[in-house]
Automatic annotation (TrEMBL):
Residues 148-233 form the Quercetin 2,3-dioxygenase C-terminal cupin domain. PANTHER family: QUERCETIN 2,3-DIOXYGENASE (PTHR43212). Fe cation binds at H58, H60, H102, E104. It holds the Pfam family Pirin_C_2. Keywords: Iron, Metal-binding. CDD domains: cupin_Yhhw_N (cd02910). Its cofactor is Fe cation. Belongs to the pirin family. The keyword NAD does not apply. InterPro entries: Pirin, Pirin_N_dom, Quercetinase_C, RmlC-like_jellyroll, RmlC_Cupin_sf. GO terms for molecular function: metal ion binding. Residues 11-120 form the Pirin N-terminal domain. This is Pirin family protein.
């Protein structure tokens, strides 16, 4: 089993006033040749947007873009005619495919919005753009893995054009669970949203990340009441 550890304070950081963003991987003005991606996981941004502010209309193509709000409400609009609100307890996916333009704003004028912006390199290019959004049913599987994304439209969660699976883990202190990879060619990037956890001998704190690959399974242990996002993705593209 191979691993790579990314401590929270080692991430890139940008402060634009209205936007504060931590970048796990190279993004915009943060460029680190040793932190370009984890397999097809290209972007993991931890964003905080000031009240009433946001990202104006801009284009994307040939990328699977996932947004997971952690606090507040995002307002999404795109060139496919979609207008939607997305809040904590929901997940949004947009397949940019042949090209799409969209904007994302903090819906509220009196509170910040915090969300994860995740980009996955797809296994199919030039697909028809699409949008989807679902409720995660937060906390439905306490001390277990709760699937929120997969490659299969009929499966639990949203789906994307890639051999990837995302799970949320909300564990009470001291609980542990073995994660079995769906594909031995994949790796898993573990990102601690809240509190602390442990994989093998590696302790993880809030917003720490750990990538693991060349293994079929590993055990995740909560060392306090924790919330963790696991992203299983192909290591080659």
């Amino acid at each position: 089993m191979k691993t790579v550890y990314h401590q929270a304070d080692s991430r890139g950081f940008a402060d634009h006033g209205w936007l504060k963003s931590h970048h796990t991987f190279s993004f915009a003005n943060y460029q680190n040749p040793e932190r370009m991606n984890f397999g097809v996981l290209r972007v993991l941004n931890d964003d905080q947007v000031a009240s009433g502010m946001g990202f104006g209309t801009h284009p994307h193509r040939d990328m699977e873009i996932i947004s997971i709000p952690l606090e507040g409400v995002l307002e999404h609009k795109d060139s496919m005619g979609t207008t939607a609100l997305i809040k904590k307890g929901e997940i949004q996916v947009m397949s940019a495919g042949t090209g799409v333009k969209h904007s994302e704003y903090n819906k509220n004028k009196d509170e910040i919005v915090k969300f994860l912006q995740i980009w996955i390199i797809p296994n199919q290019m030039n697909v028809e753009p699409r949008y989807d959004q679902i409720s995660i049913k937060e906390g439905e599987k306490l001390n277990d893995f709760q699937q929120i994304l997969s490659p299969n439209p009929e499966d639990e969660g949203v789906w994307i054009h890639q051999n990837a699976w995302f799970n949320l883990a909300k564990f009470d202190n001291g609980n542990s669970k073995e994660y079995q990879l769906h594909d031995p060619k994949n790796g898993v990037y573990i990102f601690v949203l809240k509190s602390s956890a442990k994989v093998g001998d590696q302790n993880l704190g809030t917003r720490d990340g750990l990538g693991t690959w060349e293994t079929n399974r590993f055990t995740l242990e909560a060392t306090s009441d924790s919330e963790i996002l696991l992203m299983e993705v192909p290591m080659e593209f």
